[in-house]
Amino acid sequence: MRMPIEPFRIKVVEPIRFTTREERQQLLRAARYNVFRLRSEDVLIDLLTDSGTAAMSDLQWAALLRGDEAYAGARSYYRFEEAVRQLTGYRHIFPVHQGRAAEHLLFAVLGGPGKLIPSNTHFDTTRANIEHTGAQAIDLPIPEALNPVHPHPFKGNMNVEALEELIRSVGPERIPVCLMTLTNNTLGGHPVSLENLRQVRQLLQRYGIPLFLDACRFAENAYLIKLREQSQAHRSVADIARELFSLADGCFLSAKKDGLANIGGFLALNDDELAERIRHLLILYEGFPTYGGLAGRDLEAIAQGLQEVLQEEYLRYRIGSVAYLAELLRQAQIPIIEPPGGHAVFIDAAAFAPQIPPEHFPGQAIVCGLYVQAGVRAVEVGSLMMGGSNSRGALLELVRLALPRRVYTQTHLEYVAEALAELYAERSHLRGFRLVRAAPFLRHFTAELEPL
Ligand SMILES: *Cc1c(COP(=O)(O)O)cnc(C)c1O
Question: Which residue, judged by its Cα, is nearest atom 11 of ligand 1?
Answer without folding.
Answer: 123
